[in-house]
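#dry-run=false #mode=assembly
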Amino acid sequence: MSVHSGQMQTLLPRESLLWVFAAQFVVLLPHFTHLPIWLVFAWGIAVYWRLEVFRGRREIPGRVVKLVAVSLAVAGLAMTYRRWFALEPMVALLAVSFTLKNIELLSRRDALLSLTLAYFLVATLFVFDQTIPYALYGVFSLLVVTAALVAQQGSGSARAGRAFGLSAKLLAQAVPVMLVLFVVMPRLGPLWAVPQNTSAASTGISDSMSPGDFSRLSKSDKPALRISFDGPVPPPEQRYWRGLVYTHFDGRRWSEPGITGNRWAGRRSRLHREDEQSLPAVGPRYRYQVIQEASHNPWLFALATPHSDTSGVRTTAEDTLIYRNPVGSRLAYDVRSWPRESVPVQSGLSAAEQRRHLQLPKSGNPEARAWATARRNEGMDAEAISQALLAMYSRSFTYTLQPPALGADTVDEFLFETQQGFCEHFANSYVFTMRAAGVPARVVAGYQGGEWVEQQEYLLVRQYDAHAWAEIWLPERGWVRVDPTTSVAPQRIRDGLQSAAADEFMQDALLPLHKIAFVTRLRLQWDMINYRWYRTVVSFDAERQEGLLRRLLGEISPLRLAIFLGTPVIMALAVLLLWLNFSGRGPALAPADRLYLRFCRRMARAGLPRNPGEAAVDYARRIEREWPPLAPMALRITLAYEKAAFADDAQALKQLRRLLRTFWPLRLSPRPGTTSPTPVSLR
Amino acid sequence: MLEKVSSDTGGLHADTTSPLNRRWLRWLDRRLPAAASVTLNHRKLFVLPTAAGMGFLLLIFLLWLLGTNYENNLVLALAFLLVGLVVILPVHTFANLSGLRLRLLEVDPAFAGDFGTAKIVLERTGKRTHERVRLSWPPEEGVLVDITTGEPVDVRLDLPLVRRGRVRAPRIRVESRFPLGLFKCWSWVDLDVEFLVYPQPKAPGPLPWGASVGEGEQEKSFSVSGDDFAGLKNYQAGDSLRHVAWKQFAGGRDLYSKEYASGSDARLWLDWDLLAGRDPETRLSNLCAWVLEAERSQVAYGLRLPGQVLAPALGSAHRHKVLSALALFPVKGVMG
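#status=ok
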């Protein structure tokens, strides 16, 4: 083989180009769903064009064409997004730069730049979604991008097997460093506010409620919350995960005035100040951690009278938790909940609060109002009226997920005509009627229940557990939870929606998978894996980091941290040095030589080493002289070796191997001599 | 020796005379002394990130920012994984060159203004393969080789030569960016390559038949090509193959050369004095062109230089002798 100067190619060879395009495709693929369609086409055209250039059928576009392309792309982006500093436009921008660069992908530098951008796109994928499938896809894309980088080195490394093999090897070797850094690197928290995803949640509890809204949620079995408890677990009938409180009723919809319009500002104004909040002297009843799926809303979910030390989480005046940003990706927060009885009862509602919780539209629903006034006039107190109303529900109402449509006076029609509905209808009519009777009341939306996952010890709350209930103000007890749905369908509260509406549950699902026990079990398994993944990786934050370090190191001191960081480095260096030492040790031995050396080693261990430079035959003769019992075997081995090594006899090599399998000379007595042969074991 | 490197390479390294560079070269001379065979090891190799590698570090920083700001552990993990890559890559890049042996095979003489070619053998000293190894005399592009099998690889490396004489080649740059191109590992190897550079041939006109001037032309002509067959003599290396007595050779005898003689004074003397009036380098170039012309037309030729006379003869050995005389002719002190 001989090489001469001038074989270098300055332009990218074909295989390098194809690798770059493959890497781009792999990293763009998951983004194709939310990228504008024109961008996908533009990318395809650019790739096609560049390949045509490679074949010599087309020229690299001139300055004018490029200028037009850039302007079109920028205009397209501007029209599609209208705002720049969010994630989606950023991804689109990266895709555009790919596309435009592709047309003039000429030198190795261009290719390296393009692949560097590809790494970045892999990262943006994780910002969109951190679930296991995405993480696996991310690993796959990393493998491809790194392989493409390997392939840039040239023809030999561009072979798919070689490139992937090398890429996998390099990434695998980088993993230990990653693990150490992941555990050790301090988490700083956001350095500046980042714009969150704009894409709305497919399901979720919204900032307003009108009868019928939640039926949509009842069709989704997506997880909403995963809750693990530190200590006792609340019984099913206590699992009311409060998220939102609606106080305003406009005749049809329930909403919260503060959160429409300028949504969070209004809320913030009514936040408890941390220092004002007096935590009761007794301990909390429940301690738990909630992992909440992305809801794109700021409200969090917790049992009544919650308090959280997780940064960014505040407690509102309505005993709910709220986050500083809309929850754009999974969020974990720790909560302590006190039973309401233990929290000191406010002396009474302020006049403003009283007004707020008695607010009703001027007109509408006359029958309900009349019913409420009648009860009032009978001299019943708040609790008695509530009892009467609940008794009415349990007498003649039906729980169904497919209630008949309601007209203008939803409460009247529901209470006195249709009498069929689910939680919203009950909560809606209950709160309306209680207010009409002069009892301060409000609607609470959130989740109720959850499935206990035994193996992993957490409560899985799904979207179909979305629920609405009511709270009324009793002067001596404060806010008291009343769930009117219980009076109709107690099993809804006890056993969840699935048993309460068995026939209707998930009726519209494409496949009635929830009815197959095996599939249900599998799904639960999958959710467990997900939960694990989320707890260990995705939600690993500064606090948990400290905990882990404490567990690993005991007390965290700079010295220990240095040792923790330094040990792997030193070990890695030592392994590296050893490797360099050994791999530089001359060419690999032929199999026959290796086997023969094994024979020599065993002989040496037995006390009869081969002298330096001694030929194999001489050695065999010496063995024969000094230790006759071993001679036949040694001779056969030596012969087989010579045949295998010098005559390239495959048969002899096999024989040598076979002979060595049974050749285990025992250690000789102190001084081997010709006169006193020691017994030899040939196993 | 340093002086030699900087002066003899004839402008190839115009900046080698700067003090910093001198010190660098002196340091290199101590650390990597010239030898015909060099095995690369940790003492001789340097590793640094390439421009792409710096870009990669910037990428890692941006990823870290993204991950930190979005509090996204997967992005952070990705950034850390890439840090891991940056940690292990220098080792791989280094290992790719370590253990590679370079041996100078031969150096062909060349003409000034042309490329000199050094034949270098690359071979493994261990089990490790060496991929994408570039050998070059910067700023020349050089050669890119893979040494993946146990077979040694011959490489021909070209150096543009400007001036005649003995030219000591600068250090050879051995570089590899394998496997990802983010780090480069390199060495400056001095294989003691020395080119004998003949003057650049510049044709002064037709061959100076019988135009020799001066005193010594009454000598008997011998082995000047003519028409008359004068006899056979033992073949010597360098004799023209045209004059080999093939018939005798085919008859089983030794190899003989036929000798021709001519009564005329058709002896060709390439004489320094013939070209009086031109500057010495041009005269050497002219003589060189004549040598080539004479060799082409198979005319025995002799060379007369001030203080040096080479008897007329033919063949590649003679050609080399004559051209070497021209290449090494000291111009200083000789006035045209």
